[in-house]
Amino acid sequence: MLTLLPQIFFQPTKKFIDWANNLNLTIVDCGAGMGHLSKCLDNVICIDMIPREGRDPCVLDMDALEFEHFGEKCVALLARPCHGDWVQQVFRKALDKGSRVFYAGLPRNYDMDLDGCEVEKLMSDVGEEGEELWEIKRV
């Protein structure tokens, strides 16, 4: 099985952490990578399908497309995800199950990840590299 080196792509700002912790819902960190958001957020489930060296043990070894507990009491978060069809497939699955869906990413990646989606920009500067937060309304 492929194991990746320890990399962290999304470094959340205090503004993002405060916003996320005030949702009062379970956050499903889809593509959680190292699991570092688990240390920042109050109520989070971290899942990632690709093991990484030194990954936090809280990260469930699972593809978000296999997660069966999306619904009204949780939200899907994709923060600096890998790119490709998987991103919109996760958006669709979570929305179909009644979850709200949030995407934190760099403006240069929107064409790859958000093309064709109905979105609402919620905040700027949610990450240390200038990431923005968008709510996905429809895929």
How many separate domains?
1
> What CATH architecture would you give?
3-Layer(aba) Sandwich
Compute the number of helices. Answer: 3
Give the CATH topology: Rossmann fold
Through-space gap between termini:
32 Å
Strand order of the largest sheet: 3-2-1-4-5-7-6
How helical, in percent, are the residues?
10-25%
What does this structure look like?
- The protein is an alpha/beta fold and 139 residues long.
- It has one domain (14-138): Vaccinia Virus protein VP39 (Rossmann fold, 3-Layer(aba) Sandwich).
- It is 18% helix and 27% strand.
- The chain has three helices and seven strands, in the order αββββαβαββ.
- Strands 3-2-1-4-5-7-6 form a seven-stranded mixed beta sheet, covered by helices on one side.
- α2 links the parallel β4 and β5 (100-105).
- The radius of gyration is 14 Å and the shape is globular.
- The protein starts with 13 loop residues before the first helix and ends with a strand.
- The relative contact order is 0.19.
